[in-house]
Design a protein that fits this description.
Layout lengths: L7 E4 L14 E6 L6 E6 L5 E4 L5 E4 L4 E8 L6 E8 L5 E4 L7 E9 L10 E6 L2 E6 L5 E8 L1 E9 L6 E10 L3 E2 L2 E2 L6 E2 L6 E3 L6 E7 L5 E7 L16 E9 L6 E10 L5 E3 L9 E7 L2 E7 L8 E6 L2 E5 L1 H7 L1 E2 L21 E9 L3 H4 L8 E12 L3
Parallel strand pairs: 7-27, 9-15, 9-16, 18-23
Antiparallel strand pairs: 1-2, 1-8, 2-5, 3-4, 3-6, 6-7, 9-12, 10-11, 10-13, 13-14, 14-17, 19-20, 19-21, 21-22, 22-30, 24-25, 25-28, 26-27, 26-29, 29-30
């Protein structure tokens, strides 16, 4: 299975365990597809140290039992930062599986085989890794051009806009220079997607259902979104390590802050029923402030039953915290703008207000909740709140 080498791996804890262990009081960082990422880390509340993914494996000692790792990708069109606030007792392996590579080559060609009628057949998307190129089309042949990182990829094309009805794989494409790759959805090898009815228990009138395909070669592609039907890949077309993630999300009412809830069901064969967790009535406390050229957030929340992980999200920042960290100190967007080696353009820029969401994940392990690319069948339930804060 190729997922295991996709990202940043922090080997934590006591030196034994299913992942092979690590140093007794240390963290090891590996960034296999993020050589251009900026990585900063610290032990407890100590000073920050900066490096890059190209320097992996990176090892540093942890004497306090708690540590923070922040990974920023300044080379992507959509910049993002992921922060991990954990203890050395939480996990032996934490996987950061975001792609951050700046060396690219051009891939382009023609796309044909559009139906004259049918739901959602007015466009197509080409996907590799976590990036996509999307085109609208109205029935005739089209062309595309994409800049794709050098390396090995699964290139996936789907026909359709909000609803995909055809899919084509180019698996294990080794990209060392610019190439031409055409797609014809009328080809007999094109996968005809199924469109079953999905029962979502507890979704509410404002809810939606979506399905996402994760290929063994590290590509993530949306197959569509709906309210009671969604496109799925037939079992016969799934690769041995491919997974589908059927997700359902809902919200309660409208307002400046409101509870949200969702379930992500990961399996090879998409289920026909999915159940959402109940909304949480207690609202978290989120405080925003402006320090220099950055917007910072702090979030606190009462411990939630059966919590595996907590999340704080705002703009291009995501903070992931273990229950032990949240219960002792809460979650926060750290001030990294002045850390030597950090890219200040990754900061959450000051604004009149900032939209946020705070979530708790249950039903899975902490390791599973931290992965962008799932590695096995599981079900993750999220409950939380969304809101807007006015920086003080």
């Amino acid at each position: 299975m190729k997922y295991a080498g996709l990202g940043l791996v922090a080997a934590l804890g006591c030196g034994t365990g299913p992942s092979g262990g690590g140093d007794a009081h240390g963290v090891t960082i590996i960034a296999s597809v993020a050589p251009d990422a900026i990585i900063v880390y610290r032990d407890g509340d100590g000073p920050w140290t900066a490096t890059t993914g190209a320097a992996s494996p990176i090892k540093f000692p942890v004497e306090t039992g708690t540590y923070t790792v922040a990974v920023g990708c300044p080379s992507k069109d959509t910049k993002r930062v992921d922060v991990y606030e954990l203890t050395t007792a939480d996990l032996q392996t934490v996987t950061y599986d975001q792609d951050c590579r700046s060396a690219v080559a051009s891939v382009g060609g023609t796309v044909s085989g559009f139906a004259q009628s049918g739901p959602g057949q007015t466009g197509f998307q080409i996907r590799w890794g976590q990036d996509t190129v999307w085109y609208q089309n109205f029935g005739g042949p089209a062309s595309y051009t994409a800049m794709i990182p050098l390396g090995t990829h699964d290139l996936v094309a789907t026909r359709g806009t909000s609803i995909a009805d055809r899919l084509m794989f180019i698996r294990d494409l080794v990209l060392v220079s610019s190439i031409t790759q055409d797609f014809d959805f009328a080809d007999p090898n094109a996968v005809v997607l199924e469109y079953p009815q999905i029962s979502a228990i507890g979704i509410g009138r404002l809810g939606t259902i979506a399905n996402t395909l994760f290929t063994s070669g590290g590509t993530k592609i949306s197959l569509g979104i709906g309210t009671d039907h969604v496109s799925v890949v037939p079992a016969a077309a799934m690769g041995q390590a491919d997974l589908q993630m059927l997700s359902a999300a809902g919200q309660v009412g409208v307002g400046s802050t409101l509870p949200v809830y969702s379930t992500r069901h990961v399996s090879r064969v998409a289920p026909t029923m999915i159940e959402l967790p109940p909304p949480i009535q207690e609202e978290p406390i989120v405080v925003a402030s402006i320090v220099g050229s950055s917007t910072l957030l702090e979030a606190s929340w009462s411990p939630q039953p059966n919590a595996a992980a907590y999340g704080l999200h705002a703009g291009n920042w995501s903070v992931h915290a273990s229950p032990a960290v949240l219960e002792s100190s809460g979650m926060s967007l750290p001030d990294l703008a002045t850390v030597p080696g950090w890219d200040a353009t990754l900061s959450l820029q000051p604004s009149i207000s900032v939209d946020w969401d705070v979530t708790v994940a249950t039903g899975a392990t902490l390791d599973d909740t931290l992965r962008t690319f799932p590695i096995h069948e599981t079900e993750i339930r999220n409950s939380g709140w969304v809101g807007r804060a006015i920086p003080q």
